[in-house]
Design goal:
Elements lengths: L1 H53 L13 H32 L36
């Protein structure tokens, strides 16, 4: 009987340990995914802002044929765009290496609901019978 109990306790401890390790990996993967997405959003947002304010220089939203100057500016913009995306993607990949050195636990979202006791109605005893007025 003691052997089976000890075995059950050992299995329970192993299960808890494996579950904890799995949770840490899932937490790390989740944070890595969210972090990479934020870097990508920053890069794309920055490029969008440049296009919005300077796109007229290379006919960004025009369907007309580009002038030689606009062609040159468009080539320059595409080089800048490529460098920005390459550097951002490099940093996103560097996150994976950095995260490998950490144990991460996601604390999740927590809500604490207040619990209040319900007070007894006036005129009702704990046994459910009504009290008599003593006026």
């Amino acid at each position: 009987m003691e052997d089976s109990y000890a075995e059950m306790v050992r299995k329970s401890d192993n299960y808890k340990s494996e579950k904890g390790n799995r949770y840490k990996e899932v937490s790390k993967d989740r944070l890595l995914k969210v972090s990479k997405k934020k870097i990508q959003t920053t890069m794309i947002g920055a490029l969008s802002t440049v296009e919005k304010h300077f796109g007229f220089l290379w006919g960004h939203e025009d369907s007309q044929e580009l002038t030689p100057e606009q062609e040159h500016l468009k080539e320059l913009y595409n080089e800048v765009r490529s460098e920005i995306l390459d550097r951002g993607n490099n940093q996103a990949r560097n996150l994976e290496t950095e995260f490998a050195a950490y144990d991460i636990n996601w604390l999740r979202y927590q809500i604490t609901l207040p619990v209040k006791t319900i007070s007894q109605k006036e005129g009702v005893k704990d046994d459910g019978k009504e009290e008599e007025n003593q006026d």
